[in-house]
Amino acid sequence: MVLPKGLARFNRAVTNRVNKYVVNWAPGFGLLVHKGRKSGREYRTPLNVFRTDDGFVVALTYGPDTDWVKNVLAAESCTLITQRKNYRVHSPRLVHDESRQAMPVVVRQFLGLLNVHDFLLVKRE
To answer: What are the GO MF terms of this UniProt record (predicted)?
Structure first.
């Protein structure tokens, strides 16, 4: 079960406007800065993001077909701001993982309740 599109619209209009004050410094959060693949416009998308050995992983709670995922895949790089640091990230890769191993244990359990199995992996420069 991927979260419904109506919830995505609500989050974009309401929750994301509040989150933008928290995502730069709170653990487990980040702000993804990417360009629209058609418009070239800069977008800032608040996300839950977690470190991996060579980069970061993001759970795709709305699925892999969201615009921001398509933008990052098309550009093959973007900037991720997390815990007050800017990271240039590259080589985005979609991963389907039923076990959700790249996520912390508590997050893994929560994502299991939502039936989330798709993730975006990016590498740090």
So the answer is: oxidoreductase activity
Measured CA to CA, the distance from residue 29 to residue 51 in angstroms comes to: 11
In this structure, what DSSP letter does residue 12 have? I
Q: Give me the mean pLDDT over the 49-56 stretch.
A: 95
| Residue 88 φ/ψ, nearest 5 degrees | -85, 120
For the stretch 11-39, pLDDT in tens is: 555 555 656 666 767 788 899 999 999 99
Domains of the chain: residue spans and CATH: 5-124 (2.30.110.10)
Distance CA 55, CA 100 (A): 16
Q: Can you say how many angstroms the Cα of residue 110 is from the centroid of all Cα atoms in its chain?
A: 16
Rounded Cα gap, residues 64 and 56, in angstroms:
16
